[in-house]
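Weekly structure sync, notes
Attendees: PL, DS, HV (note-taker this week)

Item 1: ZSWIM3 N-terminal domain-containing protein
DS walked through the input record. Source organism listed as Paragonimus heterotremus. Sequence as pasted into the shared doc:
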Amino acid sequence: MCDVTEEFHHLMKFPYNSFAQFQLDLSKFQHTTATSYTIRSSLSAANYRRATGKSLPDPFPYRWLQYRCVHSQTRCKAVRNADYGCESKFTVTVRKKKLCLVRANFKHSHSFQQGKPWLYSSNRRLNSEQQDLIYSVMDSFHDSHQLRRFIEESFDRRLNRFDLRRLREANKKMQQSNLHPCKSMLEKSKLALPDKSSLITTSAEHIMDDGGDEYTSVTNDSAQLKMETKLKYAQTLAKDLVSVLVGLEETDFWKQLNSFQHMIDVLAVDPEVHIECRSEKNLNH
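Item 1 (cont.): predicted structure, written out as tokens:
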């Protein structure tokens, strides 16, 4: 049993005058404790107005919300959503034009991913302003490692390669639709791009794993050789995997495809995790 009641009341400052500030503090709390809560039920301002004829103050898009730990029920087999039957939850509601905490239980029935809040996608998510800023400077970086490092140092968010891919795809769509944020956003912010010279690799380069904190210095030739070797084995495995998947019945195909997608998401965040094959014993016979 893990209790984060003290941490919650230390970081959360009820009552709140705006929902935005509540979200910022909740994000900080989840990062600090390596927990993840999701909205399981709510009453929106629109539905509240439709039912009662009353309106909420502009800063509040909900009349009330209930948050529950993501480990409260079965969602998928990935580590980040493992079913522990956790009863941790809390409810907030708007009273007297302020957002108040009305009931809560912060006792979790499971241990936490200490030091790994990034295992949960909600703890890696950028807000709209941060995303717009990244879109405006994305092309200034030499590679993905530099961009990820900049995001972590600027916003305290450790993105994985899938997060970056989604950002690049969204950025491309915005450019095509002429909705790209202006470059002046960087000037308005207090952030600064790294020196251009630091983005140029010479005899050595720094490579960071998705879940690692340390940088390993290797020569360009050695790094290139290792990358080619990994690429060769990965392509062979991918080819075998495709041939097996396409031969499955439709029901089994989608089931297994979903399992592999969750496995990839977990490895992207924690490359040291051991993926166990339940049929290994059968393969030995």
